[in-house]
Amino acid sequence: MSKVSIVKTDCYDEAIIAADVRKAVELIGGMASVVKPGDKVLVKPNFAAVPLDRLSGAITRWEVCKAVMDLVREVGGEPFIAESSAAGVDTEKVIEACGYDQLREQGYEVIDLKRAEKTVIPVKNGLLLKELNTWKPVVEADVIISVPVMKTHDQTEVTLGMKNIKGLIGDTQKKWFHTAGVQEGVVDLNATLKPKLTVMDGTIAQEGYGPLFGDRVEMGVILASTDVVACDAVGGKLMGYEPEEVGITRIAGKIAKIGELDISKIEIAGNTIEETARVFKRSSQVEIPGLPDFKLILTEGACTGCRNTVISAIMDMKNDGIEHTLAGKTILVGPFDQFPEDVDPKDIVLIGKCTMKFRDRATFVPGCPPNNIFVERGISGIEDVKRRYSTEGDVD
Length: 396
Ligand code: SF4
Hints:
Blueprint: E1 3-8, H1 14-27, E2 40-45, H2 62-74, E3 78-83, H3 91-97, H4 100-105, E4 110-112, E5 118-122, E6 131-135, H5 136-140, E7 143-147, E8 149-153, E9 157-159, H6 161-164, H7 171-180, H8 182-193, E10 197-207, E11 215-225, H9 228-238, H10 247-255, E12 267-270, H11 273-276, E13 295-298, H12 304-319, E14 330-333, E15 348-351, E16 363-365, H13 372-380
Parallel strand pairs: 1-12, 2-3, 2-7, 3-4, 7-10, 8-10, 13-14, 14-15, 15-16
Antiparallel strand pairs: 1-11, 5-6, 8-9, 10-11
Helix pairs in contact: 1-2, 7-8, 8-10, 12-13
Bound molecules: iron/sulfur cluster.
Iron/sulfur cluster binds next to helix 12.
């Protein structure tokens, strides 16, 4: 039976956090059950991009990674942190902004994978992938430990243990995922790289417009499991999401069958879900003030990918100072049969594959879901809109 530990902890105190990381790992069998003496152990935090604040819940805390590395050392393993930030983001800037350079000074190895030697490995029976573009330190590791931070995500609802693994592939493949199928791609990654342990940093989490610009949540929990799907199912549940609502968890548990997503079949150790859960504001629930009048029509069949992509694109338009171009627009998302004859076609923007049959009648943005930047271009009519982290469509 898959087991997930939940341990309530302090949001700020390094010593208490370290003790509770230890407790969470001990509750699921201890580090010695995962790491053998001499193993090279890749500790994988989330370094998505330079956050507004190191304690905004966007980036895994160094305190949690350090505690994990100390446990690995105690059982004779050789830990190192390895990560690549989102496409187009300099990982070293995240390392510096989030205090990981101090870990280096204390003798902990922190590798920016974007500067490491590249390699390609095959993917067996992938849902999406035939091969992975990764790096030598990833394939040379005996053990991978995923250390995600608990947060919402504008395209995948949440980003937890499995999505965190996306930092172990190159930028080009990261970007491609979001046009080809990010959920299936992430599941293939986990089925291939097989993280043996997940330690989830839920000390300071993020809700709302994650994965970068959301609001801090002083959640105060650490989760651990050797089953990354079970860990994500429980982590999501603590945030108010049923496991089947999260595409990555659902596909991993039901289609790829690489772990357990049924919470009734997961043993919970330590604190209970009821003691620690808190309903997070979802990315799609974020209201953006100060916008001109426009119509956003989300039909019943519009799925989360398109919903969140459109909302994040509108948010980016505001950040880019081009929100005035929304005035008078009608944005259609999801499958529909009746073209709105009462609206001037030049004011209509059709989003995604579901609207394709009307592509010759109005501005059409292809994709399933489309990349944020194409949505922004389609709505604004401005071709050279600024590329921001979130418009890359591939921030973890
Ligand atoms: S285009 Fe794709 S992602 Fe968008 S609503 Fe249709 S099926 Fe969903």
